[in-house]
Amino acid sequence: MRWSHYFIPTLKESPADAEILSHKLLLRAGLVRKLTGGLYTFLPLGLRVLRKIENIIREEMNRAGAIEVLMPALQPTDIWRQSGRYETASDVLYKAKDRSNKEWILSPTAEEVITTLAAGEIGSYRQMPVNFYQVSVKFRDELRPRFGLMRAKEFIMKDAYSFDSSDEGAMGSYQRMYDAYTRIFNRCGLRNFPVEADTGVIGGNLSHEFMVPAETGENDVVYCESGHYAANIEKATSGIPKTAAREIGAGIEKFATPGVVTIEALSKPPFSVPANRQIKTLVYIADSQPVLVLVRGDDQLNETKFMARIGAAAVRPATPEECVAALGARPGSLGAVVNVPATVKILADERLRGANDMTTGANEDGFHLRNVSIERDIKVTEWFDLRTVTKGEPCAKCGQPLKMQRAIEVGHVFKLGTKYSEKLHACFLDADGKSKPCVMGCYGIGVTRTLQAVIEQCNDKDGIVWPLAVSPYAVCITPLAVAKDSPVMQLAEKIYAELTAAGVEVILDDRDDRPGVKFKDADLVGFPLRVGIGEKSLANGEVELKPRGGAVQLVKAEEAVAQVRAFLAGKQ
Ligand code: ATP
Ligand code: MG
To answer: Can you say whether residue 461 is alpha, beta or left, with left for phi > 0 and alpha for psi between -120 and 50 degrees?
Structure first.
């Protein structure tokens, strides 16, 4: 490719609204342009990178035995109603109406469509295992589209769906995808690691996310350095001890706490109740019903864990007025001991199990209760792990202090079980002649997010430093004189032709521009190797080879092609 005939609109300055480094570099290197928030056009170089990542994904999916299909992006609503996700996923669904006012859904994912396909096509255990995948555009009405391609309204996802006749079979399919994901992200040049993950609105019972460590990531990952454990904070647990039981004091005692409405205020004199002897009572409205959630005063509720446990379609914190209506008091004096209607569910964090000598709100503004023994005095409906793990807590497996890391989620594997196959009637006849629902798994990779994650991880002060496998071109030839008959340009053309003939992806910067501009652009775009040809070195019969991020090397002009090929072979 000749630079002058191509379209690489590099920018000196970052556009003001580019928030993170990779977003700035995407724009500055001329890979994408923004149409509007969350929507981007891929320019030629960006598209080349995208195709390379897609190819790696396709190769590894095919190698793992998955079969490529392509499903419609426009989906009927009835299958979403059947799966229950018309309601539970409604906040991210883009809906469109046709001329007859019928509603459609723009695909955010495709469990419903693939399960409908399976319902029609899979009839016997002999047809499984089977795993279908596609690489296609997805749409999500994100609350906060941001960071360029990281969280977009429209993005490219590889989604795969496995169907098995048994649970063990489904585990095998899951493992094959897990292994393929590790290979895919490694081949993209990404440092990445899998973590245990919440299964969220999609359902299912086993899940891992593939994370790329980055300060700009939107996930917190908890991990043990010994390699025993890594989990998304939304799922993470630790070996932190439960609340120690004490000698039980007198019975419950009510005391006045005028104006004291926080854990912290109550921990100070004159009350001096340490936060770890307080019960924090939170009120949520789940599908229109108030629910109480109890965690220890020094702990934070993890909303994702809570949402997963409560299993309601719509959950939100209660307003102060709703707290008064449910319990008779405002936040700051709430508790679960007295005045709790029998219909109100009480969920409590495991760390409180067995705790006594606790203090909590009296459900009367300006009053608290002390000497509360949680199992004696509170009718807990269900106990769950609901607290958020913090840095330094002991690993549940080995006791070492846990670490925390920000990370970008690039892929996600789920074991779904039979949730979708039951609802959408994807059943088969087993060897014993019985009809059973297919056991499913689903597996997503954010292709466009992965592209940006590579930039977020692979860059320096001058621009992007592409790993060879996903670089838009492997080599950039930079002649410093571009007149057709100049010896410099003639050599550049010769090397360009020979490398191209050898199958090397090479771009010839034939622009009539200052050397500084051309070098800066080549560094900004991040080609792994630049071949610099200038009059001075050519007078000695030499050209420059400059690996991106490495030092210049002078090589004999007639050896340049062989040296370039050797360099690239060493990188593969
Ligand atoms: P997130 O938690 O970041 O919102 P998710 O868990 O909802 O993502 P999945 O349903 O697991 O996403 O989708 C599979 C993959 O698609 C994700 O791992 C991620 O890489 C990518 N992805 C999801 N939402 C977006 C988005 N809005 N823009 C770009 N990529 C996305
Ligand atoms: Mg996910």
So the answer is: alpha
